[in-house]
Amino acid sequence: RTWENLSVPLHVSVKRTTDYSSGKVSYFVLAHSKKYKYPGDAFDLYKKRTCIEERHRQLKGFWDLAKFSSPAFSLVLTQIIFKLIAYSLMQLYLVRSDMAELARKTISTIKKKEGAGECVIVLYSGSHYGVFDLDEYSFTLMNLNVDVKKRLTKRIKAWNRGPP
Fold first, then answer.
1. Cα 100 to Cα 39, 49, 96, 147, 149, distances in angstroms
2. How far is CA 16 from CA 40, 46, 52, 84, in A?
């Protein structure tokens, strides 16, 4: 379809933001079929939509809700309920621990943020991960027990050598 052949009216909302420290002006444009009374309403709704989609993507892609091998319906149902409860509890914990900004992020979005120049350490094992500020991570390493430091050093050297 082309723009001329649209069967519904098309409305456009434009939002201008200014970074006062650099003086840079940015424009964001949303095209939509609904006519909003105020242009900001379209952006508010879009922000909610992206949050909902991100949570759906997390549940679908990172909590393995579809990977069950049991033929027993009750076991599958119990596993799904357990994972949904665990997800909800984790979200509540992040919000209550002043880590709400991590509640809507996955490991891939955190890696993108890291690549953008923010100084964080992402540690992960399997489907679990932790995000640490570089200073916090360094402080934790400095305060490890001597025996733990030796074991960690051996593992890091082994990882750097690669597979035999």
1. 27, 17, 8, 35, 32
2. 11, 16, 24, 39
Per-residue tens of pLDDT for the chain, all 164 residues? 466 777 888 888 888 889 888 889 998 888 888 888 887 888 888 887 877 777 777 666 666 666 667 788 888 788 777 777 777 777 776 666 656 666 666 656 655 655 555 566 777 766 677 777 777 777 788 888 888 888 888 887 887 776 65
Tell me which long-range contacts 127-133 makes (C-beta under 8 A, separation of at least 24).
Answer: 127/62, 127/64, 131/102
